[in-house]
Amino acid sequence: MYDVVEIYISFLEEKEREQRTKQLNTIFEQEKSGYRIVLGEVTPITNDAEIETIEQAAATPYDSVNQHISKALAHYADLKNPDYENSVKEAISAVEAMCCVITGTSGRQATLGKAIKKLEESGIHIHGAMEKGFESLYGYASDENGIRHGGKDFKSVPPEDAKFMLISCSAFVNYLIEKWSKVENN
Known about the structure:
Blueprint: H1 2-10, H2 14-30, E1 36-38, E2 41-43, H3 48-57, H4 63-77, H5 84-103, H6 112-118, H7 128-143, H8 159-184
Antiparallel strand pairs: 1-2
Helix pairs in contact: 3-8, 4-5, 4-8, 5-6, 5-8
């Protein structure tokens, strides 16, 4: 049934899609469904604040960031064959892309570890503990076999880890945009 809903939503014009999504989410909520429609995907994320965070991060002026968030959600929300490893990879890649947009970093320098350290040069101060926290999340995505790199000891990412990374990375993208807009407006 949820596949039919996704197909139906995908054929609507943008304005009507927004209206129908709202209506369907209201019905899902009334029926106590464990799902909501987010960015055209039926997903097991039902918290309004989490949904808003993801939608905001997928609607930035930066296509690369939007695509990574949308792909992360699509991998997470696939009800038949969820791909939590790629959801985590795409979510952290959205943060990496946002840092690279801000710092103008590209090529070999376009890694989250390097770009996050250059944020200060772009006028964005992030508390050291917060910076280390995101470097650690990047480390999790990079070091855990099967997420960003292959390995002989593949470990599956549990759904709660993928959800955490999707929402946390979306929130961090939104945070970076807000910090950067203050720098640009001065």
